[in-house]
């Protein structure tokens, strides 16, 4: 006979999900009301305004898709890309490759701009691709590549798209709430994110925002949007600003309570303070890891403070280290993906998990496990180096 499931208390320092505040978890347990209840409609309006703050946009079409970040990605592509279109896709990790999959499933042609994993998207290469393909209607790229811990220049890439008369699709799944995302200042057209990274909400919701230019494009489509569920013209009947909402789907009511609470917490802290906190803890973690003798896999100017890619020392058993961290310290860090599998660890400092306690715990636990494996590290050097920066 099945029994209730009681998970252990983990420290989530992988690529997501991140640790969740007790305030957000408590919000999940509030009484469920109907998704067309007038009080829930009021909450929807608040969520929209809070998302506009997080995205730094006044876009009217800003809402949480009732599905994870991958659905947010698909929502942007299926609404803006039609059969026969040409889309320039920048790929410097796993998620650029997923963009290509979306383009092809829309019946369009993907022109790939490839950069090495661990490097940012080359603005020059993207410019060359757009110049070579003046018919391209969209430029798509990942702002914060989760698979590598690399940030790309979103402002320059969005400006490039506009210069060539193309729309921009931007992945901010790992960046929203952790580093600067300025949708209106960038001139970005379709931007999607996820609830479980720097927003520190439960997984399963994807905030999206579409510019007026993107909305015009959607309204002038000659083909139906390939997905009924993700068709923004239908979804806006439910998430629009009018008092009367048209039924589209049953929204995940309690998950949206949680998203609302996480966004309230972000607003209370303030975006600039949140960014500064992520950067401060990142610098302390890097100082501790480097003092220990480990090295970072990404050059300093392009590192994501919320997702730290660490080079695995020669001879160290990647899986054994991660397993020991989980079993002995209840600490989760992430493995490398694709070309970086077995070569890097991904250590998250996202949202609620970005704090001094987690920095210290991670350094101490890694030192203990690596020391047992006989890795060439300096025992006792990591924690003092991290604490010196946290004390400043």
UniProtKB/TrEMBL annotation:
Q: Please give the superkingdom of this protein's source.
A: Bacteria
InterPro entries assigned to the protein according to its UniProt record, in alphabetical order: Aminotrans_V_dom, PyrdxlP-dep_Trfase, PyrdxlP-dep_Trfase_major, PyrdxlP-dep_Trfase_small, SP_NH2Trfase/AEP_transaminase
Q: Which residues bind substrate?
A: 346
> Which positions fall inside the Aminotransferase class V domain?
32-337
Q: Which cofactor does it need?
A: pyridoxal 5'-phosphate
Q: Give the UniProt keywords, A-Z.
A: Aminotransferase, Pyridoxal phosphate, Transferase
Modified positions (N6-(pyridoxal phosphate)lysine) in chain numbering: 197
- Entry's Gene Ontology molecular function annotations: alanine-glyoxylate transaminase activity; L-serine-pyruvate transaminase activity
Biological process terms from the Gene Ontology for this record are: glycine biosynthetic process, by transamination of glyoxylate
UniProt record similarity statement:
Belongs to the class-V pyridoxal-phosphate-dependent aminotransferase family.
Supply the name of the protein: Alanine--glyoxylate aminotransferase family protein
């Amino acid at each position: 006979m099945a029994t209730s499931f009681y998970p252990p208390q983990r420290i989530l320092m992988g690529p997501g999900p991140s640790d969740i505040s007790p305030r957000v978890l408590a919000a999940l347990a509030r009484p469920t009301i109907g998704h067309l209840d007038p009080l829930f409609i009021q909450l929807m309006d608040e969520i929209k305004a809070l998302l506009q703050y997080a995205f730094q946009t006044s876009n009217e079409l800003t809402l949480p898709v009732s599905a994870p970040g991958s659905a947010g990605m698909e929502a942007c592509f299926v609404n803006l890309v039609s059969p026969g279109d040409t889309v320039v896709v920048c790929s410097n990790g796993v998620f650029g490759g997923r963009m290509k999959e979306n383009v092809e499933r829309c019946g369009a042609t993907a022109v790939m701009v490839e950069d090495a994993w661990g490097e940012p998207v080359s603005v020059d290469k993207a410019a060359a691709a757009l110049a070579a393909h003046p018919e391209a209607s969209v430029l798509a790229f990942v702002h914060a590549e989760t698979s590598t811990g690399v940030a790309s220049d979103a402002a320059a890439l969005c400006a490039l798209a506009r210069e060539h008369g193309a729309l921009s699709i931007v992945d901010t799944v790992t960046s929203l709430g952790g580093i600067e995302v300025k949708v209106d200042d960038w001139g970005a057209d379709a931007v999607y994110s996820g609830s479980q990274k720097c927003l520190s909400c439960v997984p399963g919701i994807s905030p999206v925002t579409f510019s007026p230019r993107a909305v015009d494009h959607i309204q002038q489509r000659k083909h139906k949007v390939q997905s009924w569920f993700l068709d923004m013209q239908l979804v806006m009947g439910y998430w629009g600003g009018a008092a009367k909402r048209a039924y589209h789907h049953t929204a995940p009511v309690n998950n949206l309570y949680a998203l609302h609470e996480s966004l309230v917490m972000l607003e209370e802290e303030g975006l600039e303070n949140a960014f500064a906190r992520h950067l401060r803890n990142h610098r302390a973690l890097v100082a501790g890891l480097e003092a220990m003798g480990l090295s970072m896999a990404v050059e300093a100017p392009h590192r994501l403070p919320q997702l730290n890619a660490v080079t695995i020392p020669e001879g160290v058993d990647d899986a054994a280290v991660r397993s020991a961290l989980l079993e002995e310290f209840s600490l989760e860090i992430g493995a490398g993906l694709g070309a970086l599998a077995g070569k890097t660890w991904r250590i998250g400092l996202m949202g609620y998990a970005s704090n001094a306690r987690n920095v210290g715990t991670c350094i101490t636990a890694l030192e203990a496990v690596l020391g047992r494996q006989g890795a060439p590290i300096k025992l006792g050097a990591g924690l003092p180096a991290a604490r010196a920066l946290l004390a400043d």
